[in-house]
Known about the structure:
By secondary structure, the chain is α/β, with parallel strands linked by helices. Helix content is 32%, strand content 19%. The chain has 15 helices and 17 strands. Strand 4 and strand 5 (83-92) form a beta hairpin. Helix 4 (145-171) packs across helix 5 (185-196), helix 6 packs across helix 10 (341-351) and helix 6 (213-226) packs antiparallel against helix 11. The protein is globular. One 2-acetamido-2-deoxy-beta-D-glucopyranose is lined by residues 122-123, 465, 473. It holds the Pfam family Tannase.
Amino acid sequence: MSLLLYAALSAVSWHSCLAADPAALKCLSLQKTLHIENTMVLNTEYVAGARNVTTPGSCQSTAKVEGAPLCRVQFVVNTTSTSSVYGEAWLPDTWYGRFLTTGNGGLGGCPQYSRLNYGSSMHFATVGTDNGHDGNTGLPFLHHPEVINDFAFRAIHVVTVVGKQIVAAHYGAPAAKAYYLGCSTGGRQGTQAALRFPDDFDGIAVGAPATDWNHLIGSSGIKSHYVGGTAPAPFNNTSPKFIPAALWPMVSAEILRQCDGKDGVLDGIITEPDDCAFNPAPLACKPGQTADCLRPPQIQALRNIYSPLLDKHGKLLFPRFTPGAEADPKAAQIFGGPMYQYTADWERYVMSNVTSYDFTDFSVRDIARWDAINAGGIATFDGDLSAFRARGGKFLSWHGRRDPTQLIPAANSKRVYELVAQTLRLRPHAMDAFYRLFLVPGMAHCFGGVGAGAIGQDDGQNAVNTSSHNVLLALVDWVEGGKAPSTIVGTAEDGTERTHCRYPMRSVFDGRTFVCVQA
Ligand SMILES: *[C@@H]1O[C@H](CO)[C@@H](O)[C@H](O)[C@H]1NC(C)=O
Ligand SMILES: *[C@@H]1O[C@H](CO)[C@@H](O)[C@H](O)[C@H]1NC(C)=O
Ligand SMILES: *[C@@H]1O[C@H](CO)[C@@H](O)[C@H](O)[C@H]1NC(C)=O
Ligand SMILES: *[C@@H]1O[C@H](CO)[C@@H](O)[C@H](O)[C@H]1NC(C)=O
Ligand SMILES: *[C@@H]1O[C@H](CO)[C@@H](O)[C@H](O)[C@H]1NC(C)=O
Ligand SMILES: [Ca+2]
């Protein structure tokens, strides 16, 4: 983002609030009184009542502020001579002494304003960042290894260190506890924080983490490839393997026919998709049939999509696509025709330093090459959380079981759980002491989907505001009260609730309701 833009912005808002309110004056004075290494305070703005504020960058133009009154501090931190990170701190007047850093999504150049709004509404001093570049594309990475480093591990750490200093200056005392909340790429960032900067947070809540990044993004591209995607958009996929959008509902219906009832309830939710051995054969065209059926290359594409990705030695590279998740509209990002955008961007702008690339032969060999480069240490697939555990950190993870976006199947979070347990040689009861994973049947990517998906993970997802139903409050109770969450109760759009179990417990229908039982 250009410094010119920041300069213009700061000139406007400094004068826009003329209130004599002491809280407002204190907020505005931060612009002059804050002196933090490598950091320029661009603007401070006192938001006296709920309203929208203007936002810099290309991601959005306004953001809603419901946690007002609060002090909004916009800043930029130089991370190297060729990279910088934009950050915002939202400091509510009614502060409960807690600090919260929020993560990003996708290719991550957009502060997640909904989480800034959510965190500050819950009375956390809340920080967010652009993760070192503007916009949700990989183009800023091209020939910019330090921008990649910001994205891969540094931005969250830097805004956390600076954010804590801003909090201490504003309130006259440091935060008592520090938390992290993020989903998707934000889930990976939170995991990276626990691995690389174990002192930054007392509690970390992550959803649908994009961990094992190289395999995740590589396998997403291979999944696009299964249906004939060989180039990024715009690209007209005319492959015989391509499955047009109109035929996917038929695939979903067949998957539900085969697997919905396995959990004892025909409700459109597959509680344990990893137990669904979907067989696409019934969808094949019968002799003479030309419509509403699939031809052999399409059937083969489905077999590939719903099979785990193995390397040439037969070792698992990445879990399969989740049966049932194809029903989510976002699945079209992978199966809609073109090569998945994040795979295309990561290959071109990071792995190959080019602007155009031929994906015709994209394969597991390319994933091996990505592994070898592992730009910025982005993989984030390391089970050694010993330092975070030793400092008393608590790690709460959730993952929707109908997650299609970026192909982050919940099975990947099970893998990460097992990796941590194996690396630290911990049995489930010992894992429970610091690391808990909640699997949410029916939930799409981070939130939404079908089922009881509101668990306090973001703005608009806080249907019941208590720690039994809210991952952020559950984490606070765990860190500050030693009360670990045994379950998380989610709320569906129609207000019905379902108890979500912590892995490795299973969610089982007892004839009346779903209960959690030992695996
Ligand atoms: C950050 O870097 C820019 C460009 O190199 C420089 O102009 C600016 O003074 C630096 N800011 C701080 C606070 O060090
Ligand atoms: C305020 O911002 C939200 C999203 O950030 C947007 O949906 C809404 O339209 C905005 N309202 C106004 C009045 O600009
Ligand atoms: C939800 O609970 C938290 C913690 O008690 C509180 O800070 C917050 O104001 C509550 N939010 C709403 C919308 O009631
Ligand atoms: C891409 O280019 C940058 C700078 O030109 C270089 O430092 C980096 O190593 C290159 N990346 C790869 C994967 O070759
Ligand atoms: C895609 O290609 C086919 C075959 O060449 C053509 O008929 C069709 O119009 C094209 N569609 C678009 C959207 O370009
Ligand atoms: Ca079911």
